[in-house]
Each structure stands twice: as structure tokens, then as C-alpha cells.
Design a protein that fits this description.
Elements: E1 6-11, E2 14-21, E3 26-30, H1 31-38, H2 44-60, H3 64-67, E4 70-75, E5 81-88, H4 89-96, H5 104-123, H6 125-138, H7 143-165, H8 172-186
Antiparallel strand pairs: 1-2, 2-3, 3-5, 4-5
Length: 196
């Protein structure tokens, strides 16, 4: 799985970490984030403990939901990335059925909407670009910064497409080429010390 597609989604004001797997064309959601919302718990450790107990119970019952959970690196509140249980939409819908919660039905609708939005973006990529632009504007980014970011992404995409067309192997050779161009890329900033 590519590790550059980590994102945050919002459900009723609460953050949910998610990851888009390009090869499988699926969203993977942080199980603990969703469990916390379903049990109406803001304390991460208590939500984690709830998931740990539920996970063991489901394993004993022979539920396939647990085996469909993957461990993906997701960013924590301390800014570091940790392996986190994550599940795709189908597994999440099955997991939701195991947790008594007044939020269950609205959560199912939310998952369906997230999947629908992704399908729309695949048909019309401009929607994804517009969503990114709106997100950066809400963060207070300048129009110049946004334009440079979008142009930089387009340039990187063209470069990686060129590498693919010229038989560059995805892992080792990509890493070498990325390391060569990285100092050039990181030397450009937006005036606030942020790389563009």
C-alpha cells in the first residue's frame, strides 16, 4: 500500500483517520476512531480498551471481522505514525453491528456517503482537486501557496509517470530517484518555513 494517502475525515465534528488504497480502490478507516464515536468516548485509551475487549470476544466467536482488519501506519495526536487497526467499509459495517450504539445508523449512512464521494472523484477528478483547495483555504493557506502545491503535485505525477514508462522499478529505484530530487524540492518554501 502506498503510504502517502493518509487523510482525515469528519463525522459529526469528530476526526476519523482514513487511508485510500489505490490498488484495491478502497478506503480503510481507523477502527479505534470509529469505536470511540460509537461508544461516545473521547478518551483514546478507554476507546482502545473497549476495542481490545471486543476484538478478543469477536475472535473467540470466530468472527471474520477481526481477520479483515489490517495494521496501517496512521498519524496520532502526537504527530507520530503508529500501526493502527484499520478496516475497509464492508468490515466496518459488520463491526458496527457488534457495538450497541445510537450512532450506528447515522454512521452507516456516513460510510456510504464517503464511498459515494470517492466514486464521484474517480469519475470527475476535478471534484477531488476542488475539495483539496477548499480544505487548504480553511487552513488559511494563501492562493499562491495552494497554486504552488497543486502545480508541484502535477509535476511529481508527471515525473513518476515518466519513471514508470521508462521501466523504473517502483520501490528501490523510486527511492533512489526521490532522494536525489528531495533536497531540491525541500529548498522551496512558502515563506512560513513550510515546504511546498
Amino acid at each position: 500500500m502506498k503510504k502517502n494517502n493518509k487523510q482525515i475525515s469528519i463525522f459529526e465534528g469528530r476526526k476519523i483517520r482514513r487511508f485510500w488504497d489505490e490498488k484495491k480502490e478502497k478506503w480503510y478507516f481507523s477502527v479505534i476512531d470509529i469505536v470511540a464515536i460509537l461508544i461516545n468516548q473521547t478518551d483514546f485509551q478507554l476507546a482502545r480498551n473497549y476495542w481490545k475487549v471486543l476484538k478478543n470476544r469477536l475472535k473467540k466467536e470466530g468472527s471474520e471481522v477481526v481477520t479483515k482488519c489490517n495494521q496501517l501506519k496512521m498519524q496520532s495526536t502526537d504527530g507520530k505514525f503508529y500501526l493502527t487497526d484499520a478496516a475497509d467499509t464492508e468490515a466496518m459495517l459488520r463491526l458496527i453491528q457488534s457495538i450497541p450504539s445510537p450512532n450506528a445508523e447515522s454512521f452507516k449512512l456516513w460510510l456510504a456517503r464517503v464511498g459515494y464521494e470517492r466514486m464521484q472523484e474517480m469519475v470527475d477528478p476535478e471534484k477531488a482537486l476542488n475539495r483539496s483547495r477548499e480544505y487548504w483555504q480553511k487552513q488559511g493557506r494563501s492562493e499562491k501557496w495552494i497554486q504552488q502545491r497543486m502545480t508541484g503535485q502535477e509535476t511529481r505525477n508527471k515525473l513518476t509517470d515518466y519513471w514508470k514508462d521508462n521501466k523504473v522499478k517502483e520501490q528501490d529505484e523510486y527511492a533512489i530517484l526521490t532522494n536525489i530530487i528531495h533536497p531540491v524540492k525541500s529548498s522551496h518554501s512558502n515563506g512560513r518555513g513550510e515546504a511546498i
